[in-house]
Amino acid sequence: MKLDRFDRQLLNLVQEDAGQTAERLAEQVALSPSAIQRRLRKLREHGVIQRDAAVLDPRQVGKPTFFIVALQVERERPELLAQLRKWLAAQAQVQQVFYVTGEADFVLVVTAPDTENYDALMLRMIADNLNIKRFTTHVALSLVKRGLTIPVALDEND
């Protein structure tokens, strides 16, 4: 899908607050509310907008602990990597998974109510995925910034 300047403006705005009405968005983008709705529908249909989500304040929902995990696999055979990816994607506690270069093969962002729950998840991961060589864990002491916003240049050449 070819994105124009209006689409790019909308993408930046809805990433900051997807709950804005078409009328509110129209105040910020030089389009009518109906044109805004059509464009957002088209962006969703083409998979540019994959989903809308609410960002919660962790302190108000039980203060979960965040864990950053560097994961190494024994062998990088495609079928074994596919199995691990599928397993990780199915775990609600695993918020993000990155396949990376360097010493680790994957970097994960995991949330759990406490270290006992995290440990249970990791034990299941090792039991279900025999190709895991090792993992190291960093416990987040505080949350400085959290988000999924991707800055979208208003001009495709930027």
From TrEMBL:
Residue ranges of coiled coil: none
SUPFAM superfamilies (alphabetical): Dimeric alpha+beta barrel (SSF54909), Winged helix' DNA-binding domain (SSF46785)
Stored PROSITE patterns: HTH_ASNC_2
CDD domains: HTH_ARSR
Pfam families: AsnC_trans_reg, HTH_24
Domain HTH asnC-type, chain residue ranges per copy: 3-64
Keywords: DNA-binding, Transcription, Transcription regulation
Name of the protein described by the UniProt record: Lrp/AsnC family transcriptional regulator
Origin species: Lysobacter firmicutimachus
Taxonomic lineage of the native organism: Bacteria, Pseudomonadati, Pseudomonadota, Gammaproteobacteria, Lysobacterales
